[in-house]
Specification:
The complex is a heterotrimer of chains A (about 325), B (about 280) and C (about 425). Chain A has about 325 residues and is mainly alpha-helical. Chain A contains 15 helices and four strands. Chain C folds into two domains: about 90 residues, Immunoglobulin-like (Sandwich), CATH 2.60.40; about 290 residues, ABC transporter involved in vitamin B12 uptake, BtuC (Orthogonal Bundle). Chain C contains twelve helices and 13 strands. In chain C, helix 3 crosses helix 9. The chains are: A mainly alpha (about 325), B alpha/beta (about 280), C alpha+beta (about 425). Chains in contact: A-B, A-C. At the A-C interface, helix 5, helix 12, helix 13 and helix 14 of A face helix 1, strand 5, helix 5, helix 10 and helix 12 of C.
């Protein structure tokens, strides 16, 4: 087994495009789940409306900038529609409604009824030429040895990590303000916040909407990289990836989504390499075939999510004091 | 030691008796749970600037009445006014902003906020609490003023040395103190304490009692739920007895202690029973 | 634990890429009566792959229809018989579905349905409505069986178990192994169902003892428990995928049945059997909950665990029994689902949102609500195809869920205090 290759591939994944996209997506979810305590299982819907908002706008002759605005507006509206009926109910109801709403949306987008606008299951392609035309980086490979990326990937990575930096700065400003303190108070105890005169519903709605808008940015970024949106990309699994990223990094921590996403993608690629090698070398005594690697990885993903939630709910690097409080 | 001015001494000792300067007026508030009458208060007035204690056996509807008055629960019908302003249908957080703040029987400390943050979150009129205000507003000087106020209050309650610790790491008694101090940050006129002395050791009970009388001395109106008659005797200006959701007696503590209805409904039948 | 720490790493590469726009499945619907050919307009055709709807189309005035597909592969093409106009019917009524239409790259594959004059001027409206109603009841029975456990478990523990759908799959798959002559004993499916239900029930009990009870003892919060159940659902679902493979497979028995007529309604006998059998099981559950000591204890814990505890009920044992019964019922639901359709590794996960809809409709925490909600969801889904395109039928159930939460969050049979 080529350990060096496996490690380099894993390292590339940790700084690559999907890691940036999931860091961004997780920042939005972190605002909702980590800071406000909202169990939003329909985060993927925000990513979807963001991506489709942009793709459809460009498809109809609008500019990408207009598309970005449309995508964000759609995500804000989605948050409003989802939040108003559910945010007064208990956490588990929000989880059920949001996961259902995400699925309804996906069914609508892929339906023949919406096809004139969304192009049904085939989706929309090649809407980000404007962005790639701006690429100032000369053709070539950049990096050291095998740790290299082509000019297109570098350009997308600059956009992705640039977005992550800007949005993190925004979150820094927001969560360190009294507004941020109030949403954390709501996460700890809604009734206490109410008794202190805080409009809990209003704060939760704002958090859901803003987190959704950040999710929409993540969706757009992924769509730009792939130059492609199709409805069946946006399955609930994506939400659970984002949850895992948030939990690895530590819910309610400013940089958690970034470290979480890098660790997540590193381990993902690493595991993939190791298991592929193991199957080739027949370390499993022929119990598993190459086609089993995908499912096994998902099962291990489940084990990891359970383990994190039970033993490290404050993230891999959660503070000791917070752990103690959690155990009480 | 009941208030020396004793403006309530001349009042009739009948349930629902009007007070000379009521801050809170309750009219015909009813709440049923699945056909079971939980609260049915015909008339109740709370005198401004006094300590009124609400007593009654378990299940008498004391906490339910608190929930109703502070907007945490909705009555089937009824009417109540704070300082002349109607409160019916007003959501709980607005009730708090109007000057009536409550605490909870099971203390609700915001565990993963520091003690100081617990205090600051309760402070009023912080522009940085709105979304745009938090991003772009000039909230830091307000924050500094609030912090000074919060630290002074924490010192008074003996919690200043814990200011930077998570509230979740406080002891049970410290949490009670924090919850009271935090409620005061809202600058309420009326403060409603739901069994502040429940499950607290005798030494801390005395501390809490000291703080409660200090509130009255600051001109606040205090309503609190309590089980222990000795505690009630020691501190209250006025006592209201609730049984099966209705006010069965009210009067000065000395009068209540000798009232036969009260002894029957409360002490007689439920003596020794703890919540 | 280090191994587990490494474990959460998994991601599929996002399903994108290589989208050729060129593959389609198309056809022309004509009624051939002796020598006369006449195009048939307004008939719905759907294309599915692995149980997922790929697309649908309605034939135009020339009888033509065309459905783009995402790539080369095997597809199931179905003619929605209910949408045939009066006087037109399939010449072979069994051939309303073409099970394996294979499309090559860049191919415009033609799929053919043979239509002729109906024997009795097509399908009568009564038959159409009636047969959909029966299918709805059958599907509702499956949802109801699967929902009761989720609702009961929520009632006694407060947990919304996102892994409940995978217990349904587990029941279907375990029964498949006992039913299969190569892998198990080749037992008749009705016999194979017994060990399947018992094993899933036992698995439910083990889950409670090994996972949920210790977590409750640690005072783990509701939100954490829900996320743990999601992790568990991945473990079960993908474990099944490794063991069972991704291919949908039918049981040996009852896979194909010929139509029967009853009260003017066309249906297959197994639909009626599933409905009848489920009603009996649900009635027994109802009796258990209302007439036995254990059942009433279960409801008491569901109403107020503290009060039940203080009145001498062994809450921990009641919860264990609830897990065993609830999981067993889910397993039974899975066997029924497998008999009705086929066995597939993610069949229960796909059912989960419908289970949620049923449970919320009836009232989370109430067993009878879940039963009622299950039947309503099943019937609503199937009957909705009379008025709206078939591709929206799942959305109908989810819309019911959302609307219910808006107007009556406690559900039809729930009490208001629960939702606070």
């Amino acid at each position: 087994m080529d350990w060096v290759k496996i490690l380099i591939d894993a390292g590339r994944a940790a700084v690559g495009v999907p890691a940036a996209a999931y860091a961004l997506s997780a920042i939005g979810l972190n605002l909702q789940f980590g800071y406000t305590g909202l169990l939003n299982f329909g985060h993927v819907a925000s990513m979807m409306v963001g991506a489709y908002g942009m793709a459809i706008t460009v498809d109809r002759g609008g500019s990408m900038w207009l598309g970005v605005i449309v995508g964000i507006l759609l995500a804000l509206i989605l948050g409003l529609i989802l939040g108003i009926p559910t945010l007064r109910l208990r956490a588990d109801y929000l989880a059920i409604v949001t996961i259902a709403a995400g699925e309804i949306l996906r069914i609508l987008v892929r339906s023949s009824w919406a096809e004139p606008v969304t192009n049904g299951i085939l989706g929309i392609q090649a809407f980000a030429d404007e962005f790639f035309d701006l690429n100032p980086i000369p053709v070539g490979l950049y990096g050291i040895g095998r740790f290299r990326f082509d000019e297109r990937t570098v350009w997308v990575m600059i956009l992705g990590w640039g977005l992550v930096a800007v949005v993190t700065l925004f979150m820094w400003k927001l969560t360190r303000s009294p507004w941020g303190r109030t949403i954390r108070a709501i996460r700890e105890d809604e009734d206490a916040a109410l008794s202190l005169g805080k409009n809990v519903f209003g704060y939760k709605l704002q958090s859901l909407m803003v987190g959704g808008a950040i999710g929409a940015l993540a969706g757009m970024f992924l769509a730009i990289d792939q130059q492609n949106v199709t409805p069946d990309t946006y399955i609930p699994l994506l939400t659970f990836y984002a949850f895992t990223v948030v939990i690895i990094g530590g819910p309610g921590s400013l940089l958690g989504p970034i470290t979480g996403s890098m660790i997540f993608w590193f381990l993902f690629e690493f595991l993939d390499g190791v298991m592929t090698g193991a199957v080739l070398n027949d370390w499993f005594f022929g119990w598993f075939e190459a086609t089993d690697i995908g499912p096994i990885r998902f099962a291990l993903f489940g084990v990891g999510l359970m383990w994190l939630m039970i033993y490290r709910p404050q993230g891999l690097f959660g503070s000791h004091e917070e752990m103690l409080i959690d155990a009480q | 030691m009941p208030s020396s001015e004793a403006p309530l001494d001349d009042l009739a000792r009948t349930p629902g008796v009007p007070k000379p300067d009521p801050i809170l007026i309750v009219d015909n508030v009813q709440r049923t749970f699945g056909g079971l009458q939980a609260v049915n208060v015909q008339s109740l007035q709370i005198q401004r600037g006094t300590i009124t204690s609400l007593i009654g056996p378990n299940g008498a509807g004391k906490t339910t009445l608190f929930n109703l008055l502070t907007g945490f629960d909705r009555p089937q019908h009824g009417d109540w006014h704070l300082n002349g302003g109607a409160l019916v249908g007003i959501p709980s957080f607005r009730v708090a902003r109007r000057g009536m703040v409550r605490t909870f029987q099971l203390t609700k400390s915001l565990a993963r906020l520091t003690v100081l943050e617990n205090m600051l979150v309760a402070a009023k009129d912080q522009v940085g609490e709105s979304f745009w205000g938090g991003l772009f507003g000039r909230w830091r000087h307000i924050e500094a003023a609030n912090e000074a106020k919060a630290m002074a209050s924490l010192e008074r309650f003996g919690l200043d040395h814990m200011a930077s610790h998570y509230a979740g790491s406080l002891s049970g008694g410290q949490r009670k103190l924090l919850e009271m101090a935090r409620a005061l940050m809202v600058e309420p006129e009326v403060i409603m304490l739901d069994e502040p002395m429940a499950g607290v050791n005798p030494a801390l009970t005395q501390t809490l009692l000291g703080h409660i009388s200090a509130l009255r001395d600051d001109g606040k109106t205090v309503v609190f739920i309590e089980h222990d008659m000795d505690v009630v005797q020691e501190i209250s200006d006025w006592v209201v007895v609730l049984s099966q959701g209705t006010v069965i007696a009210e009067g000065p503590p000395a009068h209540i202690a000798s009232n036969h209805d009260v002894i029957d409904a409360y002490l007689g039948l439920h003596h020794g029973e703890k919540p | 634990m280090l191994l587990a720490a490494i474990a959460f790493l998994a991601i599929v590469s996002m399903p994108l890429a290589a989208l050729a726009e060129n593959e389609t499945i198309k056809g022309t619907l004509e009624k051939i009566d002796a020598d006369a050919r006449e195009p048939v307009e307004g008939v719905t055709i759907t294309v599915e792959q692995g149980g997922d709807l790929i697309g649908s189309a309605v034939s135009d005035q020339n009888g033509a229809w065309e459905i783009p597909v995402p790539g080369a592969g095997e597809y199931v093409v179905r003619l929605e018989v209910e949408t045939l106009p009066d006087g037109v019917a399939l010449t072979d009524p069994e051939r309303f579905e073409l099970p394996d239409v294979s499309v090559r790259e860049n191919q415009n594959k033609t799929a053919r349905f043979n239509l002729g004059p109906g024997l009795s001027s097509g399908v009568s409206a009564w038959n159409r409505i009636g047969s959909l109603f029966v299918i709805g009841l059958k599907f509702g029975a499956i949802v109801a069986l699967s929902s009761v456990g989720l609702s009961l478990i929520f009632g006694v523990t407060g947990l919304v178990n996102f892994a409940h759908g995978d217990l349904v799959t587990l029941g279907a798959v375990v029964a498949f192994f006992f039913n299969s002559p190569d892998l198990g004993g080749g037992w008749h499916i009705l016999i194979a169902a017994i060990p399947a239900v018992l094993l899933v029930a036992g698995f439910g009990g083990l889950q409670e003892i090994g996972l949920w009870r210790p977590l409750r003892k640690r005072n783990t919060g509701l939100v954490s428990l829900i996320v743990v159940s999601i992790g568990l659902s991945f473990v079960i679902r993908y474990g099944i995928l490794v063991a069972f493979s991704g291919l949908p497979r039918p049981y040996l028995n009852y896979a194909i049945q010929s139509d029967m007529q009853i009260l003017g309604i066309t249906t297959v006998p197994k639909n009626l059997a599933i409905i009848g059998f489920t009603l009996v099981v649900l009635a027994l559950i109802g009796l258990f909950l209302t007439r036995t000591k254990l059942g009433t204890a279960m409801r008491a814990v569901s109403d107020n665990a503290d009060l039940a505890e203080s009145s001498g009920i062994d809450v921990s044992r009641v919860i264990l029994v609830t897990w065993v019964v609830g999981a067993g019922l889910a397993g039974l639901g899975g066997v029924m689902f497998g008999i009705s359709e086929q066995v597939q590794w993610d069949m229960g996960a796909k059912l989960l949102l419908l289970i949620f809809a049923a449970v919320i409709l009836g009232g989370l925490g109430t067993a009878f609500g879940a039963m009622l909600g299950g039947f309503i969801v099943g019937v609503a889904i199937e009957m909705s195809t009379l008025v709206i395109p078939v591709e929206f039928k799942t959305a109908v159930a989810l819309a019911i869920l959302v609307v219910m939460l808006l107007v009556r969050p406690q559900g039809l049979l729930g009490t208001k205090e629960r939702i606070g």
